[in-house]
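Submission checklist for the structure archive. All mandatory fields must be present; incomplete records are returned to the submitter.

[x] Identifier: Integral membrane protein
[x] Organism: Streptomyces luteolifulvus
[x] Residue count: 141
[x] Sequence attached
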Amino acid sequence: MSATQLSALARTTDPHTALRRFLALDAVVTGANGLAYLAASGTLGRFLGVGSGLLLELGILLTVYAAAVGLLAARARPAALPVRAVVEANLAWAALSCVALGLWLSPTTAGAVWTVLQALTVAGFALLQYAALTARQGMSE
């Protein structure tokens, strides 16, 4: 992804702002997902074909993770190491989602589609965050 494409997506030419926006978007989407799992684990579990206990645990994890990413996004200049940790965690989540789908989950069709879509979304966040971090580091050289 070029710096121009990245800037257009973030609607800014400042890589610091772009990075913060991509982190904030990740925090909002992840937080909403986590809260939905917490509030409706039974209903969503039946719809997705996933145990409500698993969704409840994931809801807690996602909500805490979203809060941490949100705090990072709130910093004027998020440090590179925690941003890299977010990128790596997002890539691990995406990969683990696909592995879980293939090895131990038996979701409904909606659950399988949801798992793949959320994995792609999270991987997309990781790529955008990495590109913004790289652009930011390129400016400081």
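[x] Structure attached
Curator remark: Residues 3-139 form one domain. Residues 15 and 136 are 5 Å apart (CA to CA).
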